[in-house]
Every structure is written in C-alpha cells, then in structure tokens.
C-alpha cells in the first residue's frame, strides 16, 4: 500500500490518502456543529451512500469490506463511512448516551452530508446504525434516496433486554469479536463504553417503553432493502416481521446461516446485492 500526504491541505483535516489496485480512500475529519466527525470517503461518484456502524462501532471496525470493494461495484457513487460522535476517531467528545442518542446521531448525520455538499444520499445501516437510518429516512425523507438495513429494530422488546444482559460482560466474548474494539478504545474503555450502551438501551426500554423509531418507520418513503441473517443472535425474531409490516415498498433478502454480521461474513455476496439494489431504477 502506498500512502501520500497532500501537503497543501490544512493540517487540521489530517487527510490521509491510501491507494491500492482496487480502491482509493480519503480519511479526514469534518466539522459538524460542535463535533469533529471522522469519515472515510472511497470512490469518486456523484451519487452518495452513507455507511452507519453498529453499537460503539466505527468505519473500519464495521465496514472495511464495503469501503474497499463497493466503489468498484458502484463507480457512480462515493462511499462515505462515519464514526458517530463519541465513537471511533470522533472522540472527543465522550459519547452521550441520553434517551435521544439515536435521534441526535440522525440529525448529525444529515448535517454531515449537507456539509459535504451531498444532501441527497442512500444509507447502509447496520444494527444501531440501522435504527439511526430508519430515523433519518422517516424524519428527513427529502434527503434519503434508498435505504438498506440489517440487524435493526424499531423498538426494544423484553427478549432484546435478555439478549443484552447476556452479552454485557465483554470478557465472555470471543477474542475475534472483542479485539477489534479493544484496538480502537483500549480494553478498559471498551468495557466501559459497552456497558454504558447497554444501560442506555435498557433505559429506553424502561422509560420509553422500548420505542426507538416506531413513528418514523411509518413515514419512510424511500425504497428499502431489508437483509437478515436468519440465525442472528442479537435480534429478537419479532423485529423483521414488524419491519415488513410497517415499511412500504421494501425488498427482502435472507441469509439462511447468517448471524448479526452478514456484511462481513458474506462480504462479496452482500456487496453485490447492495450494488444491484442501489443501481436499480425505481
């Protein structure tokens, strides 16, 4: 891999350009309101697709195969992955896990894309990122072209609460699942921030009856692609049928042996499905 730093660019942006035979990406920070948001841009197309990571996730931990491979499949797109405020390299600040943290992320993501002069965009949202994507598509329909979600839910069920309690202790995770996050945050901080996130979801379950975005999904007009790993251990079985019932104009694809991270486990197949969907003319 060859790396070059553009000396003419302000050091405050710290733009790093990486080139390989298959892709190009630029990683830098963008000032959005009071936040310095870290993003990775790959490809040079006029169309835009925003990649939204899962809980405590970041661009590289959650979307490396998409950053590297999607531009080849989508030459008319620029792929943009972000680290939400308080996650990954968008620190500081410390992550704020109030009752509105999903809604806050939605607002900041829309403002990010406007700041990049890309106010109309498609979204790939995984898990928590899928919740945020649903909120964006419901609250800001004029900004969303197409929507792709997987591992996402519109509310927190009692079964979800039990699932979360079972995965709270990161020491019980496999090294393969734990180590990428520990590289980003350090082992101690990762355990802390994961517990903060679990507490936040339990708080929403208690104080908002688990409602994440049940109102927003009824307002979504964007063409939507729901993907699902049938063996997803992080998602109560009721959520996909609920989304199918309340979303309009959706497409569905299931990975029979897939779990929560289908876009990583089946990256090549997943990327082709996404590219075909984004290139379809509605």
From TrEMBL:
What is the annotated signal peptide range for this record?
none
Q: Which GO terms describe its molecular function?
A: serine hydrolase activity
Instruction: Tell me which InterPro entries the record gives.
Output: AB_hydrolase_1, AB_hydrolase_fold
- Record-linked Gene3D superfamilies: alpha/beta hydrolase
Q: Which residue ranges does the record assign to the AB hydrolase-1 domain?
A: 48-167
Entry's Pfam families?
Answer: Abhydrolase_1
Q: Keywords, A to Z?
A: Hydrolase
Q: Does the keyword Nucleotide-binding apply?
A: no
Q: What is this protein called?
A: Putative hydrolase
